[in-house]
Design brief:
Order of helices and strands: HHHHHH
Number of helices: 6
Oligomer: single chain
Distance between the termini: 53 Å
Shape: elongated
Largest sheet: none
Amino acid sequence: MVPTTALINNMERSTRNALLHRIKQLTDALREIEPEHALLAGGWGAAEAGPNLRIKFGATYQSPRNQLRRMTSKNAYENSRSENQARRFKQVIEVDSLVARGHAKAAALAEIGIDRTAYYEWRSRMRDVFG
């Protein structure tokens, strides 16, 4: 990588997009002329590169290390979301339990530490999930 200006980055992006567009046009023309051509079977250079070569127009290449980082970050996000959902569902159940035992709803909400708006929103979500 080399530090460059925004102008150079934009010029490179425009050039790359123009070339990818031209390659797509040529690929489509080859597909019309000879649909069974070896280059169309598994991507460009499939004979040399093997079956794992996949080229997507407009996609950005990510190294395996960056893919792993992205997936790790995505999994951490999903785990935190499910933990938050479980915590909120537990709070709703605890508030309902206190109210069933005779506590005032406002007092139960204050004791559990959830505000009224969040309580009703998560109660609605819990009904959607569990019926």
